[in-house]
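Researcher: Structure for this, please.
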Amino acid sequence: MELLRVVFREYRGSFIGVMLLSLASAGLGIGIIAFINQRLIAASAEALSALPAFLGLLALLLGVSLAAQLALTTLGHHFVHRLRGRLIKRILDTDIERLEALGSASLLASLASDVRNVTIAFVRLPELVQGVVLSLTAIGYLGYLSGPMLAVTGAWIAGTLLVGWLLVSRVYAHLRAVREAEDRLQQDYEAVIEGRKELALNRHRARRLYHEAYDRDARLYRHHVIRADTFHLGANNWANIMMLGAIGVVFYLANGLGWANTAVAATYSLTLLFLRTPLIQAVGALPTLLSAQVAFEKLESLALAERREGFDAREPDAEWQTLELRDVTFRYPDGGATPGFTVGPINLTLQRGEQVFLIGGNGSGKSTLARLLTGLYRPQGGEIRLDGVAVTASQWTAYRQRFASVFTDFHLFDRLLGPEGNAADPELLDAWLDRLGMREKLAFVDQRVTSTRLSQGQRKRLALLLAVCEQRQILLLDEWAADQDPQFRRVFYRDLLPALRAQGLTVFAISHDDSYFGHADRLLEMREGRLVELTGAQREKAGRDALARLT
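Model: Predicted structure, token format:
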């Protein structure tokens, strides 16, 4: 099983130590049975004098068994902690286009469900390990007592395990279906939570979402989880009953066929009774390990970037003058949200300190160009050049550090950061609180924003404040003014843009505010994935009526 192989590879010394403790625990358990047979049953006259040694063995078994289980559980939790951290880091290191192809529902399901299932498996793993080790040790002891009886009881137990495995294999099949259903349920949960306003206004949509999406997926989940539990319980009960049956077989072989005396039969039965509980626990723990294997396979299927040490967050050299996109192309995969749509070839040169506006209709490629410009998407053709030098794969992370942004689908963080991840400049923060009209709206504790009740326009102002405090070289704004009231929209174009220029920022803004196109140094337009610059009469026409041009 790949999961256990990974644990062994990464924690070899600890894993071997845990196995040795488990072997010691199993050996002590069988030793106690042998002690009972030799000192408490076969030599009954010495039973009283053997009692202290018996109690000492029991105390030793308790200590060793507990140590083995705790060691394995601790090892498991260390592995899960490392797995969770590695998964988060791999997501942080994965390119945006891959994350967008996976979707947030799939990633959240993996972070929640898959990691949880691996955790549960390691909690139950001591039962499985000790059950297997005890079974193997007990078989050796039973062979020592009577080889012929072991052959028969061994065949009986093997048949029991074979049928149990067939039942458990059905559990595995249903657990895979359960995991797929969890992905779909996660998408339903997102639709219910993120679409709560629309669903409250349109109860027909709410009804259809409930019955045609959620209820269907929930029923499918229920179907497979009940089937998985059914086969699991069947395997448990089968193992329980057949182990009791094995005791009957032992006494039949001993008393009915004369294969052994009563003392050996009693010891056989005692060993089987001792083995019954850990064996049933092992069968019960196996589905959780299978579920963890399904989860582990699901995590691997995400095809995230390999984990890299550190974050390569060094601030790039600020002394640049030109940024050039030369014959840059990008094509969405056929199975994506915009199947087969191609952007480019794009040829664009930005001069340091410029304020450039980009217009274009829905689906024209504006947001894709913004992602290409900022390095969130890697060009599939062409190259990006800084001062005439092409950005290489090893420089990609550093290139992205030149940008701060407020996209339309921005996430609002609550902590202010300045250059190099340090605290924001207090004077800069103070000045921009006034410029954005947010001094009375925001409260800070150690530069952490504690205000939560903000309108969408105010949220965008806070996002811009966060971006400005980072003091990056280039600021990308995607329809930033769209959610501002007319008065503050005027403030943005007439006051904030000059302030950004004075601060030395290059601004690349997606905008449809034709009344303010005159504030741009240059005006660009995207049409069906192609970029052109509007100059002269074309720019004047766009400035008079951008909507007519876009349609």
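Researcher: Any notable elements?
Model: The chain has a mean pLDDT of 80. The first helix runs from residue 2 to 10.
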